Amino acid sequence: MRRTFLQRKRNPKPFLILASMSFLCLLLQGNFSLSQNRVILGNERFVNEFPDSLKKARLGLVVNHTSSLPQGPSLLQALLEKDLPVAAVFSPEHGFRGLQEAGERIKNSRIQEIPVYSLYGETKKPTPQQMETVDALVYDIQDVGTRFYTYITTLKYTLEAAAEAQKPVYVLDRPNPAGGTLVEGPLLHPEYRSFIGACPIPIRYGLTCGELAQMMKGEGWVPESLALHVIPMENWKREYFWEDTGLPWIPTSPNIPTPDTALIYPGTGLLGGLTLNQGLGTSHPFLQFGAPWLNPNKVMEKLDGGKKYGIQLTPLNYTPRSLPGKTLHPPYENRTCRGIRVHIREKEKFRSLHFTLHLIKTLKENHPQKIRLHEKNLNLLFGSNRLSEYIKGTITFNKFLKEIKKEEKEFQNLRQKYFLYE
């Protein structure tokens, strides 16, 4: 039985939520009914209250497999059924159907007579030639609330392309699976700007895509001339996690199969910059980690079994395997890893990044000869070189944390003027 926001307020005891993929299976089988008090997505409002100004406009949809209405049809299908002119589709990393492995370049394609332009191939931004074929862009993609998730860079590039072409863009708002209250991590430093992270925001930024789009414009990260229209949700609250929305979960990418995966990703997503397996090549990506050399019991003891972080840690042995379409060659492929599984018990308490930083500290202290940096990759993910500097011993952990907390506070204050929801 899943516990909603209201139930958590009444009873803060730990609980197990129903696996999110079960919701999707139930929905597909016709055994899952949407809650009457559920969140109303921006794409539902866009379809049902379609702007008069767009009824003769050629639309360019920036969408993927998550761009569905809760009742089932995709946004593309819903618009075509209303005989609205969709002139082009633009798809992000993982492709229109969300099946390509991370980092895999994607070619242009077609859906019947509609061109599908890849924004993760030869170009990552709608070109001037492509923009000539549309009168407005519509962005509707579910992200995970983490800076190093390329969908939000695609959002930024979409806004830039629209501004440069002097055409409007409509952002159809969606929930942030990591919630809207907690902020974690350093601001992205300019020298580490990349397609992995393009805006000076923390790793866990606590904004919806509509709020983030407003911030991009308001802070001058995209042209001020942008004609931005955000279609807000109804019934979403900042305290909500996914199970509070009343919506089914659609895996946002091959290795984010559940809402809990999205919640832990801002932290354990960093472990790819170290010599660890982060659950890739298993059925629990990012919710477990390990290596042949890891001593799980010693690490769990140092981390208090996870209790102070709102989680439970359990030891396990596992063997990462090649999973085509998810992870072709995971770290320590076909080797037995001694690892730890993370069970999230108290979502309001769980700060995934801060847990991971203390995990890295514990690994550094207990396995100093085994920790190896993929420094360039880690710096791009973290958004600065400070984590690498700590691992190399040139900065203390306390000073490192103090710097992060300062930047978190700065962003907490800055972001509030862009809130669309209480």
Q: What letter string, H or E per element, gives the SSE order?
A: HHHEHEEEHEHEHEHEHEEHHHH
Low-confidence stretches: 6-32
- The percent range for helix content is 25-40%
Which secondary-structure class do the elements indicate? alpha/beta
Q: What is the fold named in CATH at topology level of the largest domain?
A: Rossmann fold
Q: Strands of the biggest beta sheet: in what spatial order?
A: 3-4-2-1-5-6-7
CATH class of the largest domain: Alpha Beta
Distance between the termini: 27 Å
Q: Which word captures the global form?
A: globular
User: What's the domain count?
Assistant: 2
Number of strand elements: 10
Q: Specify the number of helices.
A: 13
Known CATH architecture of the largest domain: 3-Layer(aba) Sandwich
Strand and helix map with partners:
Elements: H1 5-10, H2 20-29, H3 42-48, E1 59-63, H4 75-81, E2 86-91, E3 109-111, E4 114-118, H5 128-131, E5 136-140, H6 151-164, E6 169-172, H7 209-218, E7 228-231, H8 259-268, E8 288-291, H9 296-302, E9 311-318, E10 337-344, H10 352-366, H11 375-382, H12 386-392, H13 397-415
Parallel strand pairs: 1-2, 1-5, 2-4, 5-6, 6-7
Antiparallel strand pairs: 3-4, 8-10, 9-10
Helix pairs in contact: 8-10
Structure description:
- A hairpin with a 2-residue loop joins strand 3 and strand 4 (114-118).
- By secondary structure, the chain is α/β, with parallel strands linked by helices.
- Helix 8 packs across helix 10.
- It is globular.
- It has 13 helices and ten strands.
- The chain starts with a helix and ends in a 7-residue tail after the last helix.
- The protein has two domains: 37-250, 3-Layer(aba) Sandwich (Rossmann fold); 259-384, Aspartate Aminotransferase, domain 1 (Alpha-Beta Complex), CATH 3.90.1150.140.
- A seven-stranded mixed sheet has the order 3-4-2-1-5-6-7, sandwiched between helices. A three-stranded antiparallel sheet has the order 8-10-9, with helices on one face.
